[in-house]
From TrEMBL:
Region of interest (Disordered), residue spans: 531-554
GO molecular function, one term: ligand-gated sodium channel activity
Principal location: membrane
Example of a GO cellular component annotation carried by this entry: plasma membrane
Protein keywords: Glycoprotein, Ion channel, Ion transport, Membrane, Sodium, Sodium channel, Sodium transport, Transmembrane, Transmembrane helix, Transport
UniProt cross-references to Pfam families, sorted A to Z: ASC
Membrane topology qualifier: Multi-pass membrane protein
Localization annotation: Membrane
Name this polypeptide is given: Ion channel
Organism: Pristionchus entomophagus
C-alpha cells in the first residue's frame, strides 16, 4: 500500500508541474507547508465562487426565457371572414307561431309571477331575462329543426334570419356584392348568421373603407323577443379555419349607427416546450370537436364532457358530437313535466359553467394549451350616427313601397317620412376593412441559448480558475492516468510485492555481507598484530618483555 500511495503522490506532483491551470502548480511546487495550505485555501475559494456562478448560469438557462421579435411585412392578403349575427336570435312572430315551447316560454316570461315550469322568479329582473335567454339557447336545436323544415312560402315560415331579412345592401372593394358572397352559419346563441368571404376567395391589396366590406343591415325591432335587451348586430372577424364564437369574440354594432371596424392582421409564433406551454398541433380530434385547433372550442368541448358526466345530457350551446348515446338537455314535450326537466337541466348546466374549477381543469397545459401558431385580427372600432339628416336610402325614394315594414296597415303607395323614421330605428351600417396592408409578425426566440450559457461558463472558469479548453483536456488526461494507475495496480500487486521482497532481501544480504566483511577485516587485523608481536619478541627477547597481548585485548 505504501508503494501505491507513493506512486499516486508522484502522479499528482507530476501533474502539478505540467498543468496550465492556475493555482495547482503553486500547490505542487510549494516547499513550505504553510505556503501550500495558503494556495489550497485560495484554490478552494475560487472553486466555490465558480460553483456559485455556475449554479446561477444553469438556473438562468433552465428558465427558458424568450424574446419577442417584431417585424413588419407587406403583401396582398385574403380578406378576413366576417360573421354577422342579429342580436335577436329568432324572429318573434315566427318562433312563437311555430313552436309551442316558445309560446309557453313567452307567456311565462311576460307574467309577473313565479313559474315553476321554467324556473322564473316572481320579479321581472335581470336574472329573469338571462334565464329566458339561456332557455332559448337550450332549445336552439329544436328551433333550427323548425327553420330547416320550413318551406319559406310565407313571411312567418322561417323563425331564423335569412340574407334578405338581414342585409339591405352590400358593397365590397367599391363593387356591389350579393347573396352568393355569403354563407349561412348556425350559432346556438344568435341563431342563423351570415358569413362573408367564408371561402376566403376575396383578396385585398389596398387599405381603407372604400376597399373593404360595407353592409347596410336590417334589425327590425318589432320582431325582437321580449328578453332580447340590445338592438343591433354582433360582428365576428376571423380566419376561414377558425370557428366563430360571436358570444365570446364579437363586436356590437348598434342600430342607428355607422360602425367602422378597422382590422390589422397579426401573425404570432410562439416557442414550444421547454420555452413555453403552447401546442404544436394544428388539427385535433377531441371528444366533441374535430378540426383546426383553437383554445375556445377546446375549452367548450371539455366543459361539454363535464356537463354530460354530471347532468346526463348534452348542452346544445356547446359543441357536441351528434349521436344517440346522450340526449339533449332540452326535453321534447309540451307539458309541465318536460318544461320542468328542461329547467332542472339548465340549473345543472349553469352550476358547471359557473364553476371556476371546471375552467381551471379545462385550461391545464395538458388539456387546452395555447397554439404555437396564431393568426388574429386586431380590431379598432369607431361609430357615427346613421343615417344622417341629408341621406335618403334608395328604398325611401321608390314610388311603390307596398309590402315594406313601414307601410304595413297603410293604403298609400309611398311615405318618405315613415321610411326615414323606420331606417333610423331598425337599420345600421357597418364597414370592415384593413387599416393598413402591412402587418405584424411576432415571433419568439430563446433569450438565453445554450451557446450563450457555455460562453459565460467558459468566462467564469477563466476568471476564477484560469482554465481554458487545454486545461480541460489536461484534467481529462489526469483522470485517464489515475484510472489506468488504479486499474492496473491490482494486476501488478504480486509483481510489486515481489519487488518489495526482493528489495528487502537485497537489503538483508547487504547487511549480512557487510557483517561478514567486518568480521574478516577484524581477523586480518588481529593476525597482523600477532605477527608484529612475534617479530618484536624475537628482536627484543633480552629486554623486558611487554605484556603479552591476548585475544581479549584484541
Amino acid at each position: 500500500m505504501g508503494i501505491f500511495s507513493k506512486g499516486f503522490t508522484f502522479l499528482l506532483k507530476d501533474f502539478a508541474c505540467w498543468t496550465s491551470t492556475h493555482g495547482v502548480p503553486h500547490i505542487g511546487g510549494s516547499n513550505h507547508i504553510f505556503l501550500r495550505l495558503f494556495w489550497i485555501v485560495v484554490v478552494i475559494a475560487c472553486v466555490l465562487g465558480f460553483l456559485v456562478q455556475l449554479q446561477n448560469l444553469i438556473h438562468k438557462y433552465l428558465s427558458y426565457e424568450v424574446n419577442t421579435e417584431t417585424k413588419l411585412a407587406f403583401e396582398e392578403r385574403p380578406f378576413p371572414v366576417v360573421t354577422v349575427c342579429n342580436l335577436n336570435p329568432w324572429k318573434k312572430d315566427e318562433a312563437i307561431g311555430l313552436s309551442q315551447y316558445m309560446q309557453d316560454l313567452n307567456k311565462a316570461y311576460e307574467k309577473q309571477i313565479a313559474s315553476t315550469d321554467f324556473g322564473f322568479a316572481s320579479s321581472r329582473n335581470g336574472a329573469r331575462q338571462q334565464r329566458a335567454l339561456r332557455l332559448t339557447t337550450l332549445a336552439s336545436s329544436h328551433l333550427f329543426d323548425l327553420s330547416d323544415s320550413s318551406n319559406g312560402s310565407t313571411i312567418y315560415d322561417d323563425p331564423g334570419y335569412s340574407y334578405k331579412d338581414m342585409i339591405v345592401s352590400c358593397t365590397y372593394n367599391a363593387a356591389t356584392c350579393n347573396e352568393t358572397f355569403f354563407s349561412s352559419y348556425k350559432d346556438a346563441y344568435y341563431g342563423r348568421c351570415m358569413q362573408f368571404n367564408y371561402n376566403e376567395l376575396q383578396n385585398s391589396s389596398r387599405a381603407g373603407p372604400l376597399y373593404g366590406l360595407r353592409l347596410i343591415l336590417r334589425a327590425e325591432q318589432a320582431q325582437y323577443l321580449p328578453w332580447t335587451e340590445s338592438a343591433g348586430v354582433i360582428v365576428n372577424i376571423h380566419n376561414k379555419s377558425d370557428i366563430p364564437y360571436p358570444d365570446a369574440g364579437g363586436y356590437y354594432a348598434p342600430i342607428g349607427t355607422a360602425s367602422s371596424l378597422g382590422v390589422k392582421y397579426v401573425a404570432t409564433t410562439r416557442k414550444a416546450a421547454p420555452y413555453g406551454d403552447c401546442s404544436m398541433d394544428t388539427e385535433v380530434d377531441l371528444p366533441n370537436y374535430k378540426g383546426h385547433y383553437q383554445v375556445e372550442p377546446c375549452i367548450r368541448s371539455c366543459t361539454q364532457c363535464e356537463i354530460i358526466k354530471q347532468c346526463g345530457c348534452y348542452y346544445p350551446g356547446l359543441p357536441y358530437a351528434e349521436g344517440p348515446e346522450y340526449p339533449s338537455c332540452y326535453v321534447e314535450g309540451l307539458n309541465s313535466t318536460a318544461y320542468e326537466t328542461t329547467s332542472a337541466n339548465l340549473n345543472c348546466i349553469d352550476r358547471i359553467i359557473n364553476d371556476f374549477n371546471i375552467i381551471t381543469k379545462c385550461t391545464k397545459l395538458s388539456t387546452c394549451p395555447q397554439p404555437c401558431q396564431v393568426q388574429t385580427y386586431a380590431t379598432t372600432i369607431s361609430t357615427a350616427k346613421w343615417p344622417s339628416t341629408g341621406f335618403c336610402p334608395n328604398e325611401c325614394t321608390e314610388k311603390i313601397q307596398t309590402g315594406q315594414p313601414w307601410m304595413v296597415g297603410r293604403s298609400e303607395a309611398r311615405n318618405k317620412t315613415l321610411c326615414l323614421d323606420w331606417y333610423k330605428k331598425n337599420t345600421l351600417l357597418i364597414e370592415v376593412y384593413y387599416e393598413r396592408m402591412n402587418y405584424q409578425v411576432l415571433s419568439e426566440s430563446p433569450a438565453y441559448t445554450f451557446v450563450s450559457c457555455i460562453s459565460e461558463i467558459a468566462g467564469q472558469v477563466g476568471l476564477f480558475l484560469g482554465m481554458s479548453i487545454i486545461s480541460v483536456f489536461e484534467f481529462f488526461t489526469l483522470l485517464l492516468l489515475i484510472f489506468y494507475y488504479v486499474s492496473s495496480h491490482r494486476s501488478r500487486r504480486l509483481e510489486l510485492q515481489q519487488i518489495d521482497d526482493y528489495i528487502k532481501k537485497a537489503e538483508q544480504e547487504t547487511k549480512d555481507l557487510e557483517r561478514k566483511e567486518n568480521e574478516k577485516e577484524a581477523k586480518r587485523r588481529a593476525e597482523k598484530l600477532r605477527k608484529e608481536a612475534e617479530l618484536y619478541d624475537d628482536d627484543h627477547h633480552d629486554s623486558a618483555l611487554p605484556p603479552k597481548v591476548t585475544d581479549a585485548d584484541l
